[in-house]
Design a protein that fits this description.
Elements lengths: L9 H31 L4 H26 L4 H24 L5 H30 L4 H30 L1 H20 L14 H17 L3 H29 L4 H11 L1 H6 L3 H8 L1 H18 L8 H29 L6 H12 L2 H16 L1 H11 L2 H7 L24
Helix pairs in contact: 1-2, 1-4, 1-5, 1-6, 1-8, 2-4, 2-7, 2-8, 2-14, 2-15, 3-4, 3-6, 4-14, 5-6, 5-9, 5-13, 7-14, 8-15, 8-16, 8-17, 9-13, 11-12, 12-13, 12-16, 12-17, 15-16
Amino acid sequence: MPAKPLMRVPDFQKLFLSASTAQLGAQVTLLALPLVAILGLHASAVQVGLLAALGTLPYLLVGLPAGAWLERARLKRVLSFSALGRAVVLGSVPLLWAFHEVDMGFLYAIAVVVGLMSTFYDIAWQSYLPSLVGTSRLHEASSRLSIASSGAQLFGPGLAGFLIRALSAPLALLADAIGFVVAATSVQTIEAQDPPPAERADDAGVARRVVEGLSYVTHHELLRWIAVGTGAWNFVGTALNVVLVLFEARVLHYSAGTIGLVFLLGNVGYVIGAPLVRKVTARLGVGRTMLLGATLGGLGPLLLPMARPEDAMGLLVGGWFFRALGSPLYTVNQISVRLAITPAELTARMTATMKFFVMGAMPLGSFLGGALAGALGYRPTLWVIAAVAVAPVLATALSKLRLLSDPPEKLRPGAVALRQA
Protein backbone atom coordinates (compact mmCIF):
# COMPACT_ATOMS: atom_id res chain seq x y z
CA MET A 1 0.00 0.00 0.00
CA PRO A 2 1.53 3.35 -1.01
CA ALA A 3 2.41 5.75 1.76
CA LYS A 4 0.05 8.62 2.41
CA PRO A 5 1.23 11.88 0.76
CA LEU A 6 3.14 13.94 3.27
CA MET A 7 0.83 16.92 2.87
CA ARG A 8 -2.02 14.70 4.05
CA VAL A 9 -0.17 13.63 7.20
CA PRO A 10 -1.60 15.87 9.98
CA ASP A 11 1.60 16.17 12.02
CA PHE A 12 3.68 17.10 8.98
CA GLN A 13 0.99 19.62 7.98
CA LYS A 14 1.38 21.28 11.37
CA LEU A 15 5.18 21.39 11.17
CA PHE A 16 4.86 22.69 7.60
CA LEU A 17 2.53 25.49 8.76
CA SER A 18 4.80 26.39 11.66
CA ALA A 19 7.99 26.39 9.59
CA SER A 20 6.46 28.26 6.65
CA THR A 21 4.93 30.91 8.89
CA ALA A 22 8.22 31.30 10.74
CA GLN A 23 10.03 31.58 7.38
CA LEU A 24 7.60 34.27 6.25
CA GLY A 25 8.13 36.13 9.51
CA ALA A 26 11.89 35.88 9.15
CA GLN A 27 11.70 37.35 5.63
CA VAL A 28 9.55 40.26 6.84
CA THR A 29 11.99 40.89 9.70
CA LEU A 30 14.92 40.72 7.29
CA LEU A 31 13.64 43.78 5.42
CA ALA A 32 11.55 45.59 8.04
CA LEU A 33 14.15 45.78 10.82
CA PRO A 34 16.91 47.43 8.74
CA LEU A 35 14.35 49.75 7.16
CA VAL A 36 13.35 50.92 10.65
CA ALA A 37 17.02 51.86 11.03
CA ILE A 38 17.47 53.33 7.53
CA LEU A 39 14.20 55.25 7.17
CA GLY A 40 13.37 55.96 10.81
CA LEU A 41 16.78 56.46 12.43
CA HIS A 42 18.87 57.43 9.35
CA ALA A 43 21.46 54.76 10.20
CA SER A 44 24.82 54.66 8.41
CA ALA A 45 25.98 51.75 6.23
CA VAL A 46 28.19 50.45 9.04
CA GLN A 47 25.30 50.61 11.53
CA VAL A 48 22.99 48.74 9.16
CA GLY A 49 25.69 46.13 8.58
CA LEU A 50 26.22 45.73 12.33
CA LEU A 51 22.45 45.40 12.89
CA ALA A 52 22.22 42.60 10.33
CA ALA A 53 25.37 40.95 11.72
CA LEU A 54 24.01 40.88 15.27
CA GLY A 55 20.89 39.12 14.01
CA THR A 56 22.93 36.11 12.93
CA LEU A 57 25.74 36.31 15.50
CA PRO A 58 24.02 33.81 17.85
CA TYR A 59 24.54 31.06 15.26
CA LEU A 60 28.26 31.63 15.68
CA LEU A 61 28.23 32.03 19.47
CA VAL A 62 25.80 29.35 20.64
CA GLY A 63 25.27 27.13 17.59
CA LEU A 64 27.66 24.38 18.73
CA PRO A 65 26.48 23.97 22.36
CA ALA A 66 22.86 24.40 21.21
CA GLY A 67 23.08 21.10 19.31
CA ALA A 68 24.33 19.21 22.36
CA TRP A 69 21.70 20.87 24.56
CA LEU A 70 18.87 20.07 22.12
CA GLU A 71 19.74 16.38 22.28
CA ARG A 72 18.46 16.54 25.87
CA ALA A 73 15.46 18.81 25.18
CA ARG A 74 11.86 18.37 24.11
CA LEU A 75 12.02 19.69 20.56
CA LYS A 76 8.37 20.70 20.26
CA ARG A 77 8.72 22.80 23.38
CA VAL A 78 11.84 24.46 21.97
CA LEU A 79 10.11 25.20 18.66
CA SER A 80 7.10 26.74 20.41
CA PHE A 81 9.14 28.80 22.88
CA SER A 82 11.50 30.18 20.23
CA ALA A 83 8.60 31.25 18.00
CA LEU A 84 6.76 32.91 20.90
CA GLY A 85 9.98 34.61 21.99
CA ARG A 86 10.31 36.28 18.60
CA ALA A 87 6.66 37.36 18.75
CA VAL A 88 7.15 39.12 22.10
CA VAL A 89 10.42 40.80 21.17
CA LEU A 90 9.31 42.06 17.75
CA GLY A 91 5.98 43.19 19.18
CA SER A 92 7.82 45.45 21.61
CA VAL A 93 9.29 47.59 18.79
CA PRO A 94 6.11 49.45 17.75
CA LEU A 95 5.10 49.86 21.40
CA LEU A 96 8.35 51.58 22.35
CA TRP A 97 8.45 53.45 19.03
CA ALA A 98 5.18 55.14 20.01
CA PHE A 99 6.94 56.50 23.11
CA HIS A 100 10.04 57.57 21.12
CA GLU A 101 12.19 55.06 23.00
CA VAL A 102 13.69 53.23 20.01
CA ASP A 103 17.33 53.89 19.12
CA MET A 104 20.06 51.86 17.43
CA GLY A 105 21.12 50.30 20.72
CA PHE A 106 17.61 48.95 21.22
CA LEU A 107 17.47 47.60 17.65
CA TYR A 108 20.84 45.89 18.17
CA ALA A 109 19.43 44.15 21.25
CA ILE A 110 16.28 43.12 19.34
CA ALA A 111 18.41 41.67 16.55
CA VAL A 112 20.46 39.56 18.99
CA VAL A 113 17.42 38.12 20.78
CA VAL A 114 15.57 37.37 17.54
CA GLY A 115 18.71 35.74 16.19
CA LEU A 116 19.06 33.61 19.33
CA MET A 117 15.47 32.39 19.05
CA SER A 118 15.96 31.70 15.34
CA THR A 119 19.09 29.64 16.06
CA PHE A 120 17.25 27.27 18.37
CA TYR A 121 14.20 27.07 16.10
CA ASP A 122 16.22 26.21 12.99
CA ILE A 123 18.35 23.54 14.67
CA ALA A 124 15.31 22.06 16.41
CA TRP A 125 13.12 21.61 13.34
CA GLN A 126 15.90 20.06 11.28
CA SER A 127 16.71 17.69 14.16
CA TYR A 128 13.00 16.88 14.61
CA LEU A 129 12.28 16.16 10.94
CA PRO A 130 13.90 12.69 10.60
CA SER A 131 11.94 11.29 13.54
CA LEU A 132 8.70 12.80 12.22
CA VAL A 133 8.85 11.56 8.60
CA GLY A 134 11.53 8.85 8.58
CA THR A 135 14.78 8.74 6.62
CA SER A 136 13.12 7.41 3.46
CA ARG A 137 10.99 10.56 3.11
CA LEU A 138 13.55 13.16 4.15
CA HIS A 139 14.12 14.44 0.62
CA GLU A 140 10.39 14.73 -0.03
CA ALA A 141 9.89 16.52 3.29
CA SER A 142 12.84 18.84 2.65
CA SER A 143 11.45 19.63 -0.80
CA ARG A 144 8.03 20.44 0.65
CA LEU A 145 9.57 22.68 3.26
CA SER A 146 11.66 24.30 0.54
CA ILE A 147 8.44 25.16 -1.28
CA ALA A 148 7.26 26.79 1.95
CA SER A 149 10.52 28.70 2.07
CA SER A 150 10.04 29.72 -1.56
CA GLY A 151 6.64 31.15 -0.77
CA ALA A 152 8.10 33.03 2.18
CA GLN A 153 10.94 34.38 0.06
CA LEU A 154 8.50 35.35 -2.67
CA PHE A 155 5.92 37.09 -0.52
CA GLY A 156 7.97 38.10 2.54
CA PRO A 157 9.84 41.12 1.13
CA GLY A 158 6.81 42.25 -0.85
CA LEU A 159 4.63 41.88 2.23
CA ALA A 160 7.19 43.79 4.28
CA GLY A 161 7.27 46.59 1.70
CA PHE A 162 3.46 46.74 1.61
CA LEU A 163 3.16 46.75 5.42
CA ILE A 164 5.84 49.42 5.78
CA ARG A 165 4.12 51.61 3.19
CA ALA A 166 0.67 51.08 4.73
CA LEU A 167 1.53 51.03 8.44
CA SER A 168 5.15 52.20 8.88
CA ALA A 169 8.18 49.99 9.50
CA PRO A 170 7.63 49.58 13.27
CA LEU A 171 4.00 48.51 12.84
CA ALA A 172 5.05 46.04 10.15
CA LEU A 173 6.98 44.25 12.88
CA LEU A 174 3.76 43.98 14.93
CA ALA A 175 2.13 42.05 12.07
CA ASP A 176 5.29 39.96 11.92
CA ALA A 177 4.92 39.12 15.62
CA ILE A 178 1.40 37.79 15.04
CA GLY A 179 2.79 35.36 12.48
CA PHE A 180 5.20 33.92 15.04
CA VAL A 181 2.28 33.33 17.42
CA VAL A 182 0.69 31.22 14.66
CA ALA A 183 3.96 29.30 14.22
CA ALA A 184 4.14 28.52 17.94
CA THR A 185 0.51 27.45 18.17
CA SER A 186 0.78 25.15 15.17
CA VAL A 187 3.76 23.19 16.42
CA GLN A 188 2.14 22.74 19.82
CA THR A 189 -0.70 20.77 18.21
CA ILE A 190 1.59 18.09 16.75
CA GLU A 191 0.48 14.79 18.25
CA ALA A 192 3.61 12.68 17.60
CA GLN A 193 5.90 12.23 20.56
CA ASP A 194 9.26 13.96 20.60
CA PRO A 195 12.23 11.69 20.00
CA PRO A 196 13.42 10.67 23.47
CA PRO A 197 16.00 13.13 24.77
CA ALA A 198 19.46 11.91 25.62
CA GLU A 199 20.42 11.36 29.24
CA ARG A 200 21.34 14.56 30.97
CA ALA A 201 25.09 14.93 31.31
CA ASP A 202 27.47 17.28 33.07
CA ASP A 203 29.24 20.17 31.35
CA ALA A 204 32.19 17.95 30.50
CA GLY A 205 29.79 15.60 28.69
CA VAL A 206 28.33 18.51 26.74
CA ALA A 207 31.79 19.72 25.77
CA ARG A 208 32.75 16.22 24.64
CA ARG A 209 29.64 15.92 22.45
CA VAL A 210 30.30 19.34 20.93
CA VAL A 211 33.83 18.26 20.04
CA GLU A 212 32.52 14.98 18.58
CA GLY A 213 30.05 16.85 16.35
CA LEU A 214 32.72 19.30 15.25
CA SER A 215 35.14 16.48 14.48
CA TYR A 216 32.50 14.51 12.56
CA VAL A 217 31.76 17.42 10.22
CA THR A 218 35.32 18.62 9.68
CA HIS A 219 36.69 15.13 8.97
CA HIS A 220 33.85 13.96 6.71
CA GLU A 221 34.86 14.13 3.04
CA LEU A 222 31.46 15.53 2.02
CA LEU A 223 30.23 17.49 5.04
CA ARG A 224 33.30 19.70 5.29
CA TRP A 225 32.82 20.86 1.68
CA ILE A 226 29.11 21.40 2.25
CA ALA A 227 30.10 23.61 5.19
CA VAL A 228 32.54 25.61 3.02
CA GLY A 229 30.16 26.03 0.08
CA THR A 230 27.05 26.80 2.11
CA GLY A 231 28.98 29.13 4.40
CA ALA A 232 30.13 31.10 1.35
CA TRP A 233 26.57 31.07 -0.03
CA ASN A 234 25.22 32.56 3.20
CA PHE A 235 28.09 35.07 3.44
CA VAL A 236 27.12 36.38 0.01
CA GLY A 237 23.40 36.38 0.83
CA THR A 238 23.67 38.42 4.01
CA ALA A 239 26.16 40.85 2.46
CA LEU A 240 23.70 41.41 -0.39
CA ASN A 241 20.80 41.88 2.04
CA VAL A 242 22.67 44.83 3.57
CA VAL A 243 24.38 46.41 0.57
CA LEU A 244 21.57 45.93 -1.95
CA VAL A 245 18.95 47.54 0.29
CA LEU A 246 21.28 50.48 0.94
CA PHE A 247 22.12 50.73 -2.79
CA GLU A 248 18.46 50.78 -3.75
CA ALA A 249 17.48 53.24 -1.00
CA ARG A 250 20.36 55.72 -1.29
CA VAL A 251 21.71 55.44 -4.83
CA LEU A 252 18.56 54.57 -6.76
CA HIS A 253 16.24 56.34 -4.25
CA TYR A 254 13.74 53.50 -4.23
CA SER A 255 10.89 53.57 -1.72
CA ALA A 256 10.28 50.72 0.73
CA GLY A 257 7.53 49.42 -1.54
CA THR A 258 9.80 49.40 -4.60
CA ILE A 259 12.59 47.68 -2.67
CA GLY A 260 10.13 45.01 -1.61
CA LEU A 261 8.95 44.69 -5.22
CA VAL A 262 12.50 43.95 -6.43
CA PHE A 263 12.79 41.05 -4.00
CA LEU A 264 9.22 39.93 -4.74
CA LEU A 265 9.80 39.67 -8.50
CA GLY A 266 13.28 38.21 -8.14
CA ASN A 267 12.11 35.52 -5.75
CA VAL A 268 9.83 34.13 -8.47
CA GLY A 269 12.99 32.19 -9.32
CA TYR A 270 12.71 30.34 -6.01
CA VAL A 271 9.07 29.49 -6.69
CA ILE A 272 10.05 28.06 -10.08
CA GLY A 273 13.07 26.19 -8.74
CA ALA A 274 11.65 24.64 -5.58
CA PRO A 275 9.05 22.34 -7.22
CA LEU A 276 11.68 21.18 -9.72
CA VAL A 277 14.21 20.00 -7.13
CA ARG A 278 13.10 16.37 -7.00
CA LYS A 279 12.76 16.00 -10.79
CA VAL A 280 16.07 17.68 -11.56
CA THR A 281 17.83 15.66 -8.84
CA ALA A 282 16.38 12.41 -10.15
CA ARG A 283 17.62 13.26 -13.65
CA LEU A 284 21.04 14.76 -12.88
CA GLY A 285 21.88 13.24 -9.50
CA VAL A 286 22.60 15.08 -6.28
CA GLY A 287 26.08 16.29 -7.18
CA ARG A 288 25.27 17.77 -10.57
CA THR A 289 22.10 19.38 -9.23
CA MET A 290 24.05 21.04 -6.42
CA LEU A 291 26.62 22.26 -8.95
CA LEU A 292 23.87 23.64 -11.20
CA GLY A 293 22.27 25.46 -8.26
CA ALA A 294 25.60 26.90 -7.10
CA THR A 295 26.38 28.11 -10.64
CA LEU A 296 23.03 29.86 -11.03
CA GLY A 297 23.44 31.38 -7.56
CA GLY A 298 26.88 32.67 -8.53
CA LEU A 299 25.68 34.14 -11.83
CA GLY A 300 23.00 36.36 -10.29
CA PRO A 301 25.24 38.68 -8.23
CA LEU A 302 27.26 39.54 -11.35
CA LEU A 303 24.26 41.46 -12.72
CA LEU A 304 23.58 43.58 -9.63
CA PRO A 305 26.50 46.08 -9.75
CA MET A 306 25.74 46.77 -13.43
CA ALA A 307 22.41 48.39 -12.49
CA ARG A 308 22.08 52.05 -13.53
CA PRO A 309 19.04 54.25 -12.91
CA GLU A 310 17.79 53.81 -16.48
CA ASP A 311 17.90 49.98 -16.44
CA ALA A 312 18.19 49.17 -12.75
CA MET A 313 14.90 47.34 -12.22
CA GLY A 314 15.54 44.70 -14.90
CA LEU A 315 19.10 43.97 -13.78
CA LEU A 316 18.25 43.90 -10.08
CA VAL A 317 15.28 41.60 -10.59
CA GLY A 318 17.25 39.43 -13.03
CA GLY A 319 20.22 39.09 -10.70
CA TRP A 320 18.05 38.17 -7.75
CA PHE A 321 16.01 35.79 -9.96
CA PHE A 322 19.08 33.70 -10.91
CA ARG A 323 20.23 33.52 -7.31
CA ALA A 324 16.74 32.54 -6.14
CA LEU A 325 16.40 29.94 -8.90
CA GLY A 326 19.64 28.23 -7.90
CA SER A 327 18.97 28.37 -4.17
CA PRO A 328 16.58 25.39 -3.77
CA LEU A 329 18.57 23.24 -6.20
CA TYR A 330 21.65 23.68 -4.04
CA THR A 331 20.14 24.12 -0.57
CA VAL A 332 17.54 21.34 -0.50
CA ASN A 333 20.09 18.79 -1.67
CA GLN A 334 22.84 19.79 0.73
CA ILE A 335 20.41 19.63 3.68
CA SER A 336 19.02 16.26 2.53
CA VAL A 337 22.48 14.80 1.97
CA ARG A 338 23.84 15.81 5.35
CA LEU A 339 20.76 14.46 7.16
CA ALA A 340 20.78 11.20 5.17
CA ILE A 341 24.47 10.34 5.70
CA THR A 342 24.56 11.18 9.41
CA PRO A 343 23.76 8.55 12.07
CA ALA A 344 20.66 9.37 14.13
CA GLU A 345 22.65 9.78 17.35
CA LEU A 346 24.75 12.52 15.71
CA THR A 347 21.98 14.39 13.88
CA ALA A 348 21.50 17.25 16.36
CA ARG A 349 25.26 17.74 16.83
CA MET A 350 25.91 17.59 13.09
CA THR A 351 23.10 20.08 12.43
CA ALA A 352 24.39 22.44 15.12
CA THR A 353 27.95 22.18 13.82
CA MET A 354 26.82 22.87 10.26
CA LYS A 355 24.76 25.80 11.50
CA PHE A 356 27.84 27.09 13.31
CA PHE A 357 29.79 27.15 10.04
CA VAL A 358 27.13 28.05 7.49
CA MET A 359 25.15 30.48 9.65
CA GLY A 360 28.26 31.74 11.40
CA ALA A 361 29.34 33.17 8.06
CA MET A 362 26.24 35.37 8.02
CA PRO A 363 27.28 37.99 10.62
CA LEU A 364 30.63 38.26 8.86
CA GLY A 365 28.86 38.87 5.54
CA SER A 366 26.51 41.45 7.03
CA PHE A 367 29.17 43.39 8.90
CA LEU A 368 31.82 43.28 6.17
CA GLY A 369 29.21 44.20 3.57
CA GLY A 370 28.24 47.30 5.54
CA ALA A 371 31.86 48.17 6.36
CA LEU A 372 33.01 47.83 2.74
CA ALA A 373 30.03 49.82 1.51
CA GLY A 374 31.00 52.63 3.87
CA ALA A 375 34.66 52.50 2.78
CA LEU A 376 34.45 51.69 -0.95
CA GLY A 377 30.93 52.70 -1.94
CA TYR A 378 27.93 50.57 -2.78
CA ARG A 379 28.69 49.58 -6.37
CA PRO A 380 32.34 48.48 -5.81
CA THR A 381 31.19 46.45 -2.81
CA LEU A 382 28.61 44.67 -4.98
CA TRP A 383 31.46 43.66 -7.33
CA VAL A 384 33.43 42.24 -4.38
CA ILE A 385 30.38 40.22 -3.29
CA ALA A 386 29.93 38.92 -6.84
CA ALA A 387 33.51 37.62 -6.77
CA VAL A 388 32.92 35.75 -3.49
CA ALA A 389 29.75 34.19 -4.99
CA VAL A 390 31.99 31.87 -7.06
CA ALA A 391 33.11 30.01 -3.89
CA PRO A 392 30.12 27.59 -3.62
CA VAL A 393 30.70 26.58 -7.26
CA LEU A 394 34.35 25.77 -6.53
CA ALA A 395 33.55 23.93 -3.26
CA THR A 396 31.14 21.65 -5.14
CA ALA A 397 33.09 21.22 -8.37
CA LEU A 398 36.47 20.52 -6.76
CA SER A 399 35.21 18.02 -4.15
CA LYS A 400 33.54 14.61 -4.27
CA LEU A 401 30.17 16.33 -3.92
CA ARG A 402 30.02 16.62 -7.71
CA LEU A 403 30.24 12.81 -7.96
CA LEU A 404 27.19 12.06 -5.80
CA SER A 405 24.85 10.00 -7.95
CA ASP A 406 22.14 8.56 -5.70
CA PRO A 407 19.12 10.64 -4.64
CA PRO A 408 19.35 11.60 -0.95
CA GLU A 409 16.72 9.11 0.17
CA LYS A 410 18.98 6.26 -0.98
CA LEU A 411 22.04 7.51 0.84
CA ARG A 412 22.91 5.94 4.16
CA PRO A 413 25.47 6.74 6.84
CA GLY A 414 28.84 5.48 5.69
CA ALA A 415 27.54 4.34 2.29
CA VAL A 416 27.72 7.18 -0.24
CA ALA A 417 27.33 6.40 -3.94
CA LEU A 418 29.66 8.33 -6.24
CA ARG A 419 29.78 8.70 -9.98
CA GLN A 420 32.85 7.33 -11.63
CA ALA A 421 35.28 10.19 -12.24
